[in-house]
Design brief:
Helix content of chain A is 32%, strand content 10%. Chain A is of the alpha/beta class and 293 residues long. With 365 residues, chain B is α/β, with parallel strands linked by helices. The chains are: A alpha/beta (293), B alpha/beta (365).
Chain lengths: 293, 365
């Protein structure tokens, strides 16, 4: 913690950045913090409640954050993959941000939780984590704690996907209809997604109108399927959409399923290497084409 | 009006009687099991239409949704149109509804109904809102105080508030001390007389429950809506707003779970070539699209001013016009916010500002 605070202080006082985007403990749990004064760096923390993916604040559409000046941002491994996504898709330049990597052995699902980190309380994304020490960073702080002894071998999401795969098409249809029926189109899934950076979302377009804005079964199905397609090969599985959804729709299942298909077909898995293009961003003669009629 | 007692088993029986008679019953209920969340987060509790009395989960915690959607659905048709040769046929929707009963409403949710009656009956009478209001009997269940994000006592309600309710149940012994508050409440008791005790009992235990709940909620926030409204009146521009919403994502999660947020959008959706449906859908001032003009100009340029609007509407504009704060202190917005925006913090800071700064005269904005 002290290492992080000292580093932030140095970056701010030397004028190398104008804001450090990190985490602080509020009255009701951990929340994102924007520290602009070197004297305030004592606010910064990193502990298992720091589940938020702060890469979202680097998006060019965040004008109030942009106005603060050049940022340094605290990133876990999963967050670094999202930063790589922004670099890969030319949304930010590497020199325009300082990345403070934190070694992370897993975070809690709920930033307001006071629970101890165990295999029971750990966020689902951490069960699949293959990046405890981000490398796409300018600084790396903190210590890696030993792996959780009771960390589940298979993520709850993958177990659920197996159950869904075993369903008949009619059962699967009924399952998703029931889940989507709670969607009110608040777009928390989109707004918290670091890779949903479009200035004009397809869902907000009215001329022409590509999908209905009403949260009825037709409109909701269209929205969630379109979003899943737009994230194919791009979603870094940070889980923020699912955490943000006030209707508790298991959105991660959709994106995980699509990611599995992309990985099987294109041997691609989003990494923190911005030089590796996503399947949607490249053409290869070896691409499978049997689906072309 | 009157007081009586209802045992837990008779409450289940009452729900059964209503369902048998074909009355729709809305109550907090639990989903079967959590699908993907950490196991300890438990099943989702939400108000929904129940089919069996056993589905009721009155003590499983605060429902994730508010009661709002049963009076102002997230989407509903207003009319249907169909081209007929040289004419257009319009078909309006029904504005009368079958009777229904809400069992186990949280006081912060029933209060919102009373608050929203004011705007829904203001410049025109919203027939769909009042049609559903009139068809619905609301039975409140006094709340023990959910957690440290409850602040109903700060905004003119309380864990045993009867605002917007026809009847109040207060846990007491093996059942509930019952206050019958309105003619609709009386009608419910009269129609199911055998379910209610003939003798009044359980008052002392109920009093204790109410006292403890109030004390618990009182600890969470110390602020005065009147003082805050006074400060807001003169501080449309202030450095406080400039960094207020840096972490806000500009989504509508807070508005979706808010019992009092009621803005809606009206859309025409074609269905086939010759007809379509006009619908109204929930909307929220927190999205950038909310105020985009046809010209492309957007007067609310960033998230800070959008969040200012949220605060202004709830704590200055609405009270100015309708003498009620547009907030019931349920705390849901702070519970769901993925960016950690915390209304209790914002109100505490406003209270501090209001206490330290002289308030300019109204209209300075």
């Amino acid at each position: 913690m002290q290492e992080l605070q000292e580093l932030a202080k140095k970056l701010l006082s030397e004028g190398r950045v104008q804001v450090v985007i990190g985490y602080e403990a509020g009255a009701h749990g951990v929340r994102p913090a924007f520290v602009t004064d070197a004297a305030d760096c004592g606010r910064l923390i990193f502990d298992p409640r720091c589940v938020h993916n702060l890469a979202v604040y680097l998006s060019p559409r965040r004008s109030p954050v942009k106005r603060l000046g050049k940022p340094a941002v605290v990133v876990k491994g999963c967050d670094a993959k999202a930063v790589a996504g922004l670099l890969r898709e030319s949304q930010i330049k590497r020199d325009d941000v300082v990345l403070i990597g934190v070694r992370c052995s897993g975070v809690l699902a709920d930033p307001r939780s006071g629970a101890t980190l165990t295999g029971e309380t750990v966020a689902d994304k951490c069960i699949l984590c293959d990046l405890h020490e981000p490398t796409l960073v300018d600084h790396l702080v903190g210590e890696l704690r030993p792996p959780l002894p009771d960390m589940p071998r298979v993520s709850r999401r993958d177990l659920m996907l197996e159950r869904i795969s075993a369903m008949s098409p009619a059962e699967r249809w009924a399952f998703w209809q029931a889940e989507f029926s709670r969607c009110t189109r608040c777009y928390a899934c989109r707004q918290t997604c670091p890779l949903c950076f479009c200035e004009q979302c397809v869902a907000d377009k009215s001329q022409p109108q590509w999908l209905e804005t009403s949260p009825h079964p037709r409109g909701n199905l269209a929205w969630h399927v379109i979003r899943a397609m737009h994230l194919a090969g791009r979603c870094v599985d940070c889980g923020e959409c699912e955490r943000a959804c006030p209707a508790e729709i298991p959105l991660g299942l959709l994106y995980r399923k699509v990611a599995q298909i992309v990985e099987a077909r294109f041997k691609h898995r989003p990494t923190e290497d911005p030089e590796v293009p996503s399947p949607i961003g490249k053409y290869s003669l070896d691409d499978e084409q049997e689906f072309i009629l | 009006m009157s007081e009586t007692y209802l045992t837990t088993s008779n409450l289940l029986g009452l729900a059964g009687d209503l369902l048998t008679a074909g009355t729709q019953v809305i109550a907090p209920a639990q989903d079967a099991e959590p699908l993907v969340g950490p196991p300890q987060s438990g099943p989702r509790v939400a108000y929904r239409v129940i089919r069996k009395p056993e589905e009721m989960a009155l003590e499983a915690g605060m429902p994730a949704n508010s009661l709002k959607e049963f009076f102002l659905p997230s989407t509903e048709p207003l009319l249907k149109w169909r081209y007929q040769k040289n004419d257009v046929e319009l078909k309006e929707v029904e504005t009368t509804f079958q009777p229904r009963v809400v069992l186990g409403a949280r006081p912060c949710d029933s209060a919102a109904l009373e608050i929203l009656d004011r705007v829904m009956g203001w410049d025109y009478r919203d027939e769909l809102w009042f049609g559903r209001r009139e068809a619905t009997t609301v039975v409140n269940l006094a709340c023990p105080g959910e957690d440290d994000l409850c602040f109903c006592t700060t905004v003119g309600s309380g864990p045993d508030s009867v605002r917007g309710a026809d009847m109040l149940l207060v846990p007491s012994g093996d059942g509930y001390f019952v206050e019958v508050l309105t003619p609709k409440g009386e009608a419910l008791v009269t129609a199911h007389r055998e379910r209610f005790s003939q003798v009044e009992k359980g008052r002392a235990e109920a009093e204790q429950f109410r006292k403890e709940a109030k004390a618990k909620v009182d600890r969470n926030l110390n602020a005065s809506p009147e003082r805050i409204a006074g400060w807001l009146a003169g501080h449309f521009e202030h450095p406080f707003w400039d960094k207020l919403a840096l972490q806000c994502h500009g989504c509508g999660a807070c508005a979706a779970v808010c019992p009092t947020c009621h803005c809606f959008d009206i859309v025409d959706e074609p269905e086939g070539v010759l007809g379509g449906t006009r619908r109204r859908n929930w909307d929220t001032c927190q999205t950038s699209k909310f105020t985009v003009h046809a010209s492309g100009h957007n007067p609310r340029t960033n998230q800070n001013v959008r969040f200012r609007q949220r605060i202004m509407h709830k704590f200055f504009i609405y009270p100015e016009r309708f003498e009620q704060v547009l907030c019931t202190g349920c705390g849901r917005c702070a519970r769901v916010c993925p960016g950690g925006m915390d209304l209790l913090d914002v109100l505490a800071e406003l209270e501090e500002l209001a206490g330290t700064e002289a308030t300019p005269s109204k209209g300075a904005a």
